[in-house]
Amino acid sequence: YRSKAKGRGTYTIFTIDMVDSHKRKLSIANSIDQAISENEFIVYYQPKVDKHGLIIAFEALIRWQHPEFGMIMPGEFIPIAERGGKITSITQWMIEQVAKEMPTIRAIMKRRFRVSVNLSGHDLRHSGLFDMIHDIFNRHMVNPEYIEFEVTESAYLENFALSNKFFRRVGNMGCAISLDDFGTGYSSLSYLTQISIDTLKIDRQFIRELETSERSRLVTGTIIDLAKRLSLTICAEGIENHNQWDYLIEHGCDHVQGFLFSEPVPLDNLPFLPPRFHRQSTKAV
Ligand code: C2E
Ligand code: MG
Ligand code: MG
Ligand code: MG
Hints:
Elements: H1 16-30, H2 32-37, E1 41-49, E2 55-66, E3 70-72, H3 74-83, H4 87-109, E4 114-118, H5 121-124, H6 129-139, E5 147-152, H7 153-158, H8 160-173, E6 176-182, E7 199-202, H9 204-208, H10 214-229, E8 233-237, H11 242-250, E9 255-257, E10 265-266
Helix pairs in contact: 4-6
The chain binds ligand C2E and magnesium ion (3 copies).
Ligand C2E binds next to strand 2, helix 3 and strand 6.
């Protein structure tokens, strides 16, 4: 591709790379059904840690062990699945798989925790979503109090009425609800008093900039304050170092999640997570 900026004309050339990437997208779109039936998807779990350094939850994150392309990340195939109308089949697979793996996680943890599953906006427009989840919980005898759903601000708000109804129903059943990637989508906060959620998850972008940007520190501190005033739990994602963890603890953040504690890992690796994470700083909480 040659851009005007390079002064080489205004036309576009389709390169081998672009054709390959298009082929890959098509191939991914066309092999989703088969991936479900052949069990090519796999659940990875990333711990969420409380202020004492104890694991209180796991986020379930999907990966695809593709026979031709190797490991494909959700950032690549979830948007393709959404466009192709396949996302709700993936969501169903995901919840069912978490339900099947739940007894193993419970045996490892030996105490209360939640596993969160990410929902797409497309899922919320699917009228059978609640019944589908209810049915999975019944068949696998899942206690809904062990499950949380994560939904982005935009997915929630773009389907406001349906989201409110759905999350009220799953909330009444005992599931928790988090607003994911909070702070990136909307400028109006008035909706926060009208929706049915338990937790705000501050977007990774703010955490990444904590050490370099006064504005990000300010926004992060303000989001934590806001969550407290609304009696919501506050979780920060993308914690990669101790400075970020210290800042969040000092500002009253409830839960943290990030590579500092663990990358997402498959079920088999859960027993190797440390029983407790320790802060380097000696300051009192
Ligand atoms: P998300 O829900 O915001 O998940 C957090 C993403 O940040 C995950 O990427 C996680 O691996 C990554 N992450 C966690 N800690 C750190 C850190 O310290 N540093 C950095 N750089 N990254 C960190 P992942 O697994 O690639 O997932 C990307 C997105 O794909 C998720 O964002 C979520 O929106 C979507 N996704 C993942 N699994 C599912 C699923 O089962 N269903 C749906 N609908 N979406 C999913
Ligand atoms: Mg999430
Ligand atoms: Mg997130
Ligand atoms: Mg994010």
